Amino acid sequence: DGGITQSPKYLFRKEGQNVTLSCEQNLNHDAMYWYRQDPGQGLRLIYYSQIVNDFQKGDIAEGYSVSREKKESFPLTVTSAQKNPTAFYLCASSILAGGKNIQYFGAGTRLSVL
Amino acid sequence: GENVEQHPSTLSVQEGDSAVIKCTYSDSASNYFPWYKQELGKRPQLIIDIRSNVGEKKDQRIAVTLNKTAKHFSLHITETQPEDSAVYFCAALWANNLFFGTGTRLTVIP
């Protein structure tokens, strides 16, 4: 289960509060991703970063923010502007090589609203 | 961007039978198609992938087929076992990002 570590496993957010989900990888991967998983909706891309100090919005970036100050770390902040934050959040990392993008996932963080 | 559709959303099969999950994609520029398996409470893990220069790939009891003309690809699991029960996601690589289908919950009935 090594490689990508997400913490915490469970997180509760109060109304109006920002919370930050941690994602750390020791695979020396350049690219990192955040996905939101809701029942019946698959994996939806929130943000991605293909190199340190650079990141791009995915399909559902509104209400979220990220940073990529180190290659190993890609934290996700769920801001108070995200009105429906309850979901399972997955972080992944990958190397693009040989025309492939093989993503390795963390164990996830389940966020609930109090 | 790319749009990936996956069917069915749920699938139940008897142990030993075959299971087939189908996906379609919208952009012909997509050229890499992985399949991920997510067991209950666990992280998604890659089980098989195919690049657009081949039509079929097999790995023991699982196989993936790709029809580039029709823009669809399928996962085939033969001789299903209870441990195959999981949610399966297809994906397509477009502009260096993976676009995922909505998942298929496969239940293998002993």
Shape of chain A: globular
Number of separate strands of chain A: 11
The proportion of residues in beta strands of chain B is over 45%
Low-confidence stretches of chain B: none
Radius of gyration of chain B: 13 Å
Q: What's the mean pLDDT score of chain B?
A: 95
Could you say which structural class the secondary elements and strand pairing of chain A correspond to?
mainly beta
Question: Radius of gyration of chain A over alpha carbons?
Answer: 13 Å
Measure the end-to-end span of chain A.
30 Å
Q: Which sheet architecture does the biggest sheet of chain A show?
A: 7 strands, mixed
The largest chain-to-chain contact, stated as pair and per-chain residue counts, equals:
A-B, 24 and 23 residues
Number of helices of chain B: 0
Biggest sheet features of chain B? 6 strands, mixed
User: How much helix is in the residues of chain A?
Assistant: under 10%
Helix content of chain B: under 10%
Layout of helices and strands:
The complex is a heterodimer of chains A (114) and B (110).
Chain A: E1 4-7, E2 10-13, E3 19-25, E4 31-37, E5 43-51, E6 54-57, E7 64-66, E8 76-78, E9 87-97, E10 100-105, E11 109-113
Parallel strand pairs in A: 2-11
Antiparallel strand pairs in A: 1-3, 3-8, 4-5, 4-9, 5-6, 7-8, 9-10, 9-11
Chain B: E1 4-7, E2 10-14, E3 19-25, E4 32-38, E5 45-51, E6 56-59, E7 62-67, E8 72-77, E9 86-94, E10 97-100, E11 104-109
Parallel strand pairs in B: 2-11
Antiparallel strand pairs in B: 1-3, 3-8, 4-5, 4-9, 6-7, 7-8, 9-10, 9-11
